[in-house]
Amino acid sequence: MAKRISAALLAAVLAMLSLTACAARQTPDNKVTQVQTTVASADEVIPEDNSTFKLCYSQADSLDPFEAVTQSNQILAQLVFEGLFSLDENYKATLNLASGYRYEDSKTLVVDITSGIKFSDGSTLTAGDVVQSFEEAKASAYWGGSLEEISDCSAKSDAEIVFHLSTPNNYAHNLLVFPIKSSDGDGDFPIGSGRYYFATEGNETVLKANVTESFKPHLTTLHLENIASNDSIDNAINIGNISFAFRDLSTNSSRKISANKKLVNMNNLVYLGVNNKSGITANASIRKAIALAVDRQALVKSAYGGFAQAATGVFNPQFELATTALYESTADVNAAKQAIAQSGYSNLSVSLLYNAQNTDRRACAALIKQQLEAAGFSVSLNAAATDEEYFRLIQSESFSLYIGEVKLPPSMSLKAFFTNAGGAHYGIDTGSSKAGEEYYKFLDGGELGSFLLEFSNETPYIPLLYRKGMICFSKAMNGDMQGRCFDCFGNIENWYFISE
Known about the structure:
Blueprint: H1 7-16, E1 54-57, H2 71-80, E2 85-87, E3 93-95, E4 98-105, E5 108-113, H3 127-139, E6 150-157, E7 160-165, E8 196-201, E9 204-209, E10 221-226, H4 230-239, E11 244-247, E12 260-274, H5 284-293, H6 296-303, E13 308-310, H7 333-343, E14 349-355, H8 359-374, E15 378-384, H9 387-395, E16 401-407, H10 415-418, H11 434-443, H12 448-458, E17 461-473, E18 477-478, E19 496-497
Parallel strand pairs: 1-10, 14-15, 14-16
Antiparallel strand pairs: 2-3, 4-5, 5-7, 6-7, 8-9, 9-10, 11-17, 12-16, 12-17, 13-17, 18-19
Helix pairs in contact: 1-12, 5-7, 6-8, 11-12
């Protein structure tokens, strides 16, 4: 169902992008040691383990997937609840609780659910549970942002749910990964159909394995340790007080974890917002020059310590639509200077706004200043001392450039940039943006190549990199631990501890 660039349009795109010297995307150096874990041989018997594995959670926070505000409790939901679809590391959706789906028209998605699915309490999952879970997810702080492009849903029958889209998008089914919980649960814990369920042992809250023919884990009981602060979680995994944790690497302290670890891809785009409305950045050639002058690979390595990947195109590099690179991962200073010459500007003074409370963006700003000055720009840094000041300056569009970050939904929707309601639209004239116009045409059946061509011509914003997260785990654990952003516990049924 994915739209493809026609051969003619692709040739036109490549011709128009001659200044960018397009190249294949490069994988950044990975500073995280990839751990070789032991996998049990076929004839080796691994006993059940109901005492060793420990996870952190916040006792003060809710265990309800739509009310939890801490990352720890939100991650637990991946074990207890399931979505209609699952996403792999390339953001490709596969059926989970859903048995099939179809787009009846550009704004109507119908999903069939598998009959006979049971919650952990033995009750049957119904279309009503899906509808209620969607409504709670859409109203929640954690899930609401990614579900904005679905206006509502309803049960067409006991086995069919209809989702109405606010904007056409053939990848809207990627959004249906929100947790489905029982609408009848009125006990101490919310009830799901996942691999584990909440229970109490003595005075302790635990996760018990929901053992089935297809899920027979070695870890039958997961113990929950009440740990509140992020720094305490990092310390707990380092010293072995917990066995596993997911860290989104939004703080430098998490990068110093000494436990075993593996990076996971995320959809957090760090970008340069550009004032398309005033100053020299209102000139498209100047915006293109800035995009060409940036060395994304240097930002990944130096500002983000290797915990990111360069954004050389419009979409996440793992996503199937990311087939055309618009920029080199390294700076193309000569092409940037050609674009400057085409602009006709000689006074190349710009300001760069960033949030000084974020150490990554502070380092990023210093590097971008150097990179732009190498191409001939004069850059003044504007460090916002607080989050409030940073957002005020962005919303008032008091910038030439700003360093921003947006968590894009798994449908890869770019509405955050091309609608006035989007959190990343500042500086873009959404009413007259040709790139925005072509983007919405693409969503409704138009050519991807036309959008990419107009995006390159206009450069309404500048993609820089996608941050990565990390799963970290005890050095005593084995089983070739695999995890991804939407399922950190990907193959937990194979995990076990080394025998003493």
